[in-house]
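Morning!

This is the sequence you dropped in the shared folder:
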Amino acid sequence: MPHAESVETNASPSIASYDVNGTASWYGGRFHGRLDARGERFDENAMTAAHRTLPLNSMVVVTNLENGRQVQVRITDRGPYAHRRVIDLSRAAADALGYVEDGVARVNVRAVSAP
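The structure's back. Tokens below.
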């Protein structure tokens, strides 16, 4: 069954029911090595992501809706700050999903575990 388009709010979502379709972007480069929201160094080669409201260190499965590829990533940072994006993935995660060159992809984000 297709998921409805969701727009993020500042309200904290229930991790047990978090299952959202939307646009993902990726980040790396100038952020590599900077401190993330947990106070640890961001590694663009790790399977991590930034999300506005999900608890830090929670795990999500992200599916590229165009090609069916999936990755599991840990939420380690806050973002994305671009309008109408649901998640920002590390360069490694975006590469595994096949959208580094495009910069954005239509994805499904499903929470699988709380911290």
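Headline: The radius of gyration is 13 Å.

More detail when I'm at my desk.
O.
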